[in-house]
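Hi R.,

Here's the chain you asked about this morning:
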Amino acid sequence: MDQINRRQFVQRTALGLAGAWLAQAGCASSPRADSAANRIAFNTANLVARCTNYRYELKHWGEQHQKTVAQTDEAAWDAICREIAAAGYRAVEIWEAHAAPESLTREKALRWQSILDRHGLRPVAYAGGLRRETLQICQWLGIPHVDGGLRDQTPAQATALCREFGVRFNLENHPEKTAAEAVAKIGGGNEWLGICVDTGWFGTQGANVPDAIRACGKLVRHTHIKDVKAAGAHETCLLGGGVVDVPGCLLALKAVGYTGWYSWEDEPEDRNPFDSAVVNRQWLQARLKS
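And here is the predicted structure, written out as tokens:
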């Protein structure tokens, strides 16, 4: 198929999946299907330490990435999706290492999607770097945006690339201490380029995270909801148990009219994140219902 037809196919597929998911979510005992409490996703980057039995150091992230790529076969992906669904999540942000350009083909992507469908999971974001190959994977899986680093792209190059594939990009803050620094890296933003606010990394940098969200305003198009124990380091913890004003972040997101997903992120170096996945989901749902 040519580029336009592929895009149309992906859009139709994504709309169909969205309708099925929303119908499933809109049961009588749940909040409205379109409410914020129903827009919570599990970020599979949480499982960065899975390949080494939940023991690693943050400085070795790159090595963990490569090990994860090597170990994520069909059976491993099925096991991951099964555990995510068992923890009560119905949406997932797929980390690049779990659907890597080095190993994923169009045919394999269909099997990945079939596994997601089998476990009732909707792919809503792709956590990775911006490049032609990751945008292609988003097309295959019906994912609307990449959330991560620009790599070596200028804002103009990134915009052209996103437009070509019909997939958006949101810059995830890491070293940036202010909203202005993040926004500057995407040239002020546009319809294709926005911001993915990582509350934990802003906390690590000592920022007032609700203020940063308000400063980004409508450019906030995705979120990684995370808490850290102290500024100056990136030791993650239960939501509400660290230095990040996560409740204030949720209020700030509401104030700027945010309608995107709340992707729970916690990449612990010394424990299995599934041990707290239900508690964190419930913590978020309780606050997003109000």
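One quick note: The chain has a mean pLDDT of 91.

Cheers,
M.
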